[in-house]
Amino acid sequence: MRWRAEKNTPWLLLSPAILTILFVVAIPLLFSFYTSLTPYKLTRPETINNFIGLRNYERLFDDAKFWWAFGRTILFLAIALNVEFILGLGIALLINKITWGQRTLRTIMMFPMMFSPILVGFQFKFIFNDHIGILNNALQGLGIMDDSIAWLVDKPLGMFSIIFAEVWMSTSVFAILLLAGLFAMPRDPLEAAKVDGCNPWQVFRHITLPFIMPFAFIAMTIRSLDVARAYDIVDVMTGGGPAGRTEVLWTLIARVGYDNAKMGQANAMAYVSTLLSILFTYYFFTKLVAARRYMGGAE
Amino acid sequence: MNRRLKSRIGKTALWIATFLLMLVICIPGLWVVLSAFRPNSEILAKPAIWIPRDLTLDNFAQIFGFGQEQVAIPVLSYFTNSMVIALTSTAIAVLIGMSGGYAFARFRFLGKNSLFLGLMLSRAVPGIALSLPVFMIWSKLGLIDTKMGIIIVYVAINVPFTIWLIDGFFRQIPKEMNESAQVDGCTRWQAFWKIEFPLARSGIASAGVFAFLTSWNEYALVSQLSRSTDSKTLPVGLMDFTSQFTINWAGMCAMAFIIIVPALILTFLVQKHLIAGLTFGGVKG
Amino acid sequence: MKSSKLRLLLASAIVPLALTGAPAIAGDFDGVELRVKLIGGDQYEPLYAEIEKWEAETGATVNILSRKNHFELDREIKQDIAAGTLDWCVGSNHTSFAPQYGSIYRDLNGVIDASVIAEFDALAIENSTVHDRLVQLPRHSDVSNMYYLKSVFEDQGNKDGFKAKYGYDLAPPETWDQVKDQAIFLTKGPDFFGTQYVGKDEAITGRFYELLVANGGALFDDDWNPTFNSAAGVEAVSWFKDLYDAGAVPKGVLSYLWGETGNGFASGTIALNLDWGGWASYFNSADATAGNVGLIRAPKGSAGIRTGWSGSHTFSITESCDNVPAAASFVTFLTDYDRQMVEASKGLLPTRTQVWVDATAHFKADGNAFLANVMEVYSQSMAEDAFTPPLIPEWIEVSNEIWPRLQSAILGEMTIQAALDEAAEAAAEVMEDAGY
User: Fold this and answer.
1) Which domain holds residue A256?
2) How far apart are CA C410 and CA C396, in angstroms?
3) Contact A277, A227 (CB under 8 A)
4) Domain with A277 in it: what CATH number?
5) B-interface mutation test, from A41, A122, A136, most B Cβ less than 10 A away
6) Which residues does residue C91 pair with via DSSP β-bridges, in sequence order?
7) What SS3 class is residue C316?
8) pLDDT for A42-101, tens place per residue?
9) Rounded CA gap, A16 and A19, in Å?
10) In angstroms, rounded to a whole number, what is the distance separating the alpha carbons of residues B205 and B200?
11) What is the largest CA-CA distance in chain B?
12) What is the DSSP annotation of B194-212?
């Protein structure tokens, strides 16, 4: 009897979670999938009853705009995550060395995490504005530039600006985790290496870095879960433009789905972008599990 | 002498680097906060006016309805809604997280890893893919423009992460403690509340903090699911305000100020918990 | 016993019946809650301050569910259509957006007295009619004319320099070519620019469209084939591109919408600005430009036609409205004589014929030469130059195919002809899909 109850307990405990996710995520996803098989138009709700099979998906394959947005999204994420890692590492190393006022520094470092993504978007839209933005004003005031730089318009600068905003917002996640890793590192190997005459770079590369990698993977996993928040930033700063220069998957989906009211098509795109998110997350998660096992052993 | 000099230069360099770093982090926010207190004409002036000539509370007055022709922005309603929604969804998400986290930490069962992965991946679905279907289902259920409707969605968003964190914390507590309490005569349930829960308290708190922040700052879903001051939150209010007053930069900064301040206060209060939560829960789980 | 009780019941019922049978005057809609969705923005707000008067008069309360800019409002309305949540009565509308909404709005011809409708501008009413249904009641119209900074044009140094360089006198421009010359000459970047334009979304499509027409071109031919990639179209886009290349417009124009251009001119850093009447009083009272603003009619294109892209902001009543009389009363109130006079005093162009006349007289009497001039200039353009984009449901979708290519051309990513050709192809596909 007790054994049977034991078997059911975890499922019982997990049932609220499972139910919630089913209700809020799984069912709408199924609905989305169904509409992606129809020419559903928001303004003509009856179109949801036409079944056209995979035609929306077929159209996607020919759609250059979609693939550009897809590529741009991957580029955006790849650059952002890597930059956040490197900067986060730098910040963690820096703060680790400082003994006085560390708590204040840690608090300040966490500020950007507290901001709502749309707030971050507006903040940088304001700062990068070509006419009245503080950045251009500063450059002109200091005499460095005679002209305004259109941070949100020029070809490479548009992507730079949104990546900058995203990095500003999320580097703290990496910094905190890597700092914690640095704190948790046992001193002995470090001391031993110094005694053996290794220079700081070697110590870092062979001892510090491997130890904190698990922490880095956690951060990557956490980030990849939240990655779609970047939509808020891009939407506010550039709307995906001009001329689609900063168009990422999410802004494209919103435009096709809401502005053009072509929901069926937009849902097909959304499915592809969901797959992308899942792949990213899965990739980092497996790395994390492997690293955890390593950590468990080291403990 | 040489070594001391080297170390002093090193330390100064360190401090300079740190200072610059803090500047980059803080300046955007500080500039927005400063601009909230300047009149729009100063912000738009070219060449730029660096030292504020006029500091004014006009922008805030406008928001709260003391301007000449503007009707008040219901900031208080937005704030209350944000509070209620964030707190409630956090409480529920943490409860579900405790329940689920315990299950993952203490039990072995078939499909455990896949279920865990599945729950995590549900978070990876972009809000934009969910927003219309959720809207349509919610409207059939009459949940549009209700705080409850948004709370349910936020719980679903937060559950994967709370489960993950709390699972990690429970794992750190040796199973033996529960078992020895049972030997002493407690039921499993009592043992949980007496032994394991208190030990995992800080982890649970940090999970709560993350959930709260996520709910407080979320925009994409709540903008679809809310319609009036019955359920609109601060981020939606900010966007509405900027849409309403088409790029009134000063006003937008003022609104941003109103949103940032609670978040900043929260940071001060909980930074210890956040770090503890991320590291212990996430890593050693 | 039963019958006497019944009689008592009937008798007591007659009293309230008698009361409600009274003629329809104040207090009509006691306890009614009218749910509405309105457009928000600086210039639209003054009207909403008047709503409490209607509430006091009729005893109803107005619940403003949403107050957003038109693109956001459009998204919201489309969502409501999809989900069937049209549980509100009155919505802000616009002649360019109305055709896409299908039949969710009622025909006001049966709902509002014909005599009331007759008091409005015939052209405005015509543009508010889709498939013979008057789906919206016009609130104010917009058409754009050319604002300029008087000091810049009166400056002798400018005058001499310009005459020397271009061979004709510096004066507020009559043609778009002159605008280009003057803008390039007057620019002193990055603090002062000759002109500016809106650079994305339906806004830039509209500007392109009106310049196209002013140059003698057309968007579609009679069979709905796109014809905007003609020579006239290329000429129109060149105007945008040449100014951008010469640095005569702020670098960020391609991310500008009406708020940026409005604030830009009001900050005194732009010499020439094509804009609607709604900004007029703001321009004339802003710190940097007060008393220095002039207004002339929109310049002509190469075909001798003046640009005149116009539309009207309107109000509509939903088919699913649960209290049509209240909604009709509200909508009529918002567009009645007094309300339109309030909006006219801000420079918003009325749609009631009488208000035009009276507002202009009012300003003249007040000695407000600026606003009197504004009224006169705009009334001329409304009467003679105004034209709307094709009032079809596909307008927004076609626009979404056009404006990114316009941006590409301006940025030099594609040649103008190639960009327009690509847009024309995409537009043709949209029209085909829609069944034209």
Assistant:
1) 73-114+166-294
2) 21
3) yes
4) 1.10.3720.10
5) A122
6) C37, C316
7) strand
8) 777 777 778 888 888 888 888 888 888 888 888 888 898 889 898 888 888 888 887 777
9) 5
10) 9
11) 78
12) IIIHHHHHHHHHHHHHHHH
CA distances B121 to A284, B115, B116, B137, B144, Å, are: 11, 10, 9, 22, 26
CA distance C236 to C228: 10
Measured distance CA(A37)–CA(A60) in Å, rounded:
13
Tell me what pLDDT residue B67 has: 54
Is residue C237 within 8 A of residue C208, CB to CB? The reply is: yes
Q: C104: buried, middle or exposed (CB in 10 Å: 19+, 13-18, 0-12)?
A: middle
Looking up tokens 């890692």, which residue turns up?
Answer: A85
Q: Give the separation between CA B29 and CA C267, rounded to whole angstroms.
A: 24
Chains sharing 3 or more CB pairs under 8 A with chain C: A, B
Neighbours of C163 (CB within 10 A): 12
Contact C427, C226 (CB under 8 A): yes
The complex's ipTM works out to 0.80
Whether A221 is in a domain gets the answer yes
pLDDT at C282: 84
Which phi-psi region, left, alpha or beta, contains residue C257 (left: φ > 0; alpha: ψ -120 to 50)?
beta
- Domains of chain C as residue ranges with CATH: 2-142+311-366 (3.40.190.10), 144-309+394-433 (3.40.190.10)
The answer to whether residue A199 sits within a structural domain is: yes
A149 interfacial to chain C (CB closer than 8 Å): yes
pTM for this one? 0.79
DSSP A299: -
> A24-44 pLDDT, tens per residue?
999 988 888 888 888 877 777
- For residue A151 the two structure tokens come to 């941070």
Name beta bridge partners: C120.
C352
Angle A64-97/A102-114 helices, nearest 10 degrees?
A: 170
Percent of chain B whose predicted confidence (pLDDT) is above 90: 10
CA distance C41 to A212: 51
| Token pair recorded at residue C163 | 């005459």
Domains assigned to chain B = 2-63 (no CATH), 75-283 (1.10.3720.10)
| Average pLDDT taken over every residue of chain A | 80
Chain B residue whose CA is closest to C50: B69
* Cα–Cα–Cα angle for C178, C183, C188, rounded to 5 degrees: 155
C-beta of residue C215 within 8 angstroms of C-beta of residue C232: yes
Q: Are strands C144-149 and C272-276 parallel, antiparallel or unpaired?
A: antiparallel
How many CA atoms lie within 13 Å of A235's alpha carbon, on the beta-carbon side? 20
Q: Are A84 and A170 in contact (CB under 8 A)?
A: yes
What's the structural domain count of chain A? 1
> Across the interface, which of B46, B227, B248 has its CB nearest the CB of C66?
B227
Identify whether A195 is part of a domain: yes
CA angle, residues A285, A290, A291, in degrees to nearest 5 = 95
* Nearest CA distance, A155 vs chain B (angstrom): 23
Question: For residue C341, is pLDDT > 80?
Answer: yes
The residues in C 92-121 lying below 8 A from B, measured between CB atoms, are: none
Residue A135 contacts by C-beta under 8 Å, 6 or more apart in sequence?
Answer: A127, A128, A149, A151
Tell me the β-bridge partners of C149. Answer: C293
Phi then psi for residue C103, to 5 deg, are -110, 30
| Helices and strands, counts by H and E, chain B | 14, 0
Contacts of A131 in chain C (CB under 8 A): 190, 250, 252, 260, 264, 269
Contact yes or no for A26/B158 (Cβ under 8 A): no
CB of C265 within 8 A of CB of C287? no
